[in-house]
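ARCHIVE CARD
CATEGORY: sequence design from structure
SOURCE FIELD: tokenized fold
FIELD CONTENT:
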């Protein structure tokens, strides 16, 4: 593919809107959280979502081991979550320290997010430089009537 074609494709992909959330796996003490913007509902019955995780991210090992996660949905006041999770966390760092958080059998619920979905991993698929996890939603709650944050990228070929 010519570079100009790739750049043109990147501009179009960048216009695909996405939400933003914090993908949380493991426990408050030893789990990890990461910003996630590639997630989407993929089934009505049972309710399921997909979430993409860049290959090699430390959270991948926890997802593969526990086969569970919580997707915390970020509201329009996105800055606090972006500041906290934007730098990423190493496996030995405590990702949830300093946040209003509570345990869930599937991960960690963040009180400053507008809602959450607790999921059981039912499938994992390789997708280029990411892994796509399919999660069956087993619990969830909208905790705030605020609107969700909607994200558009500057370039659809990079973060």
């Amino acid at each position: 593919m010519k570079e100009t074609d790739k750049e043109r494709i990147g501009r179009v992909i960048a216009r695909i809107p996405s939400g933003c959330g914090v993908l949380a796996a493991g426990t408050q003490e030893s789990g990890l959280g990461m910003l996630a913007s590639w997630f989407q509902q993929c089934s009505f019955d049972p309710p399921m979502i997909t979430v993409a995780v860049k290959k090699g991210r430390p959270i991948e090992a926890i997802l593969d081991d526990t086969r569970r996660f919580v997707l915390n949905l970020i509201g329009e006041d996105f800055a606090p979550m972006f500041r906290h999770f934007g730098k990423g966390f190493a496996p030995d760092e405590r990702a949830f320290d300093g946040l209003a958080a509570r345990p869930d059998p599937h991960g960690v619920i963040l009180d400053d997010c507008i809602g959450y979905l607790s999921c059981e991993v039912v499938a994992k698929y390789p997708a280029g430089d990411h892994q796509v996890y399919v999660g069956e939603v087993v619990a969830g709650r909208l905790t705030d009537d605020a609107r969700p944050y909607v994200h558009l990228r500057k370039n659809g070929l990079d973060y």
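CARD ANNOTATION: Residues 3-13 form the longest helix (11 residues). The chain has a mean pLDDT of 94.
SHELF: design records, drawer C
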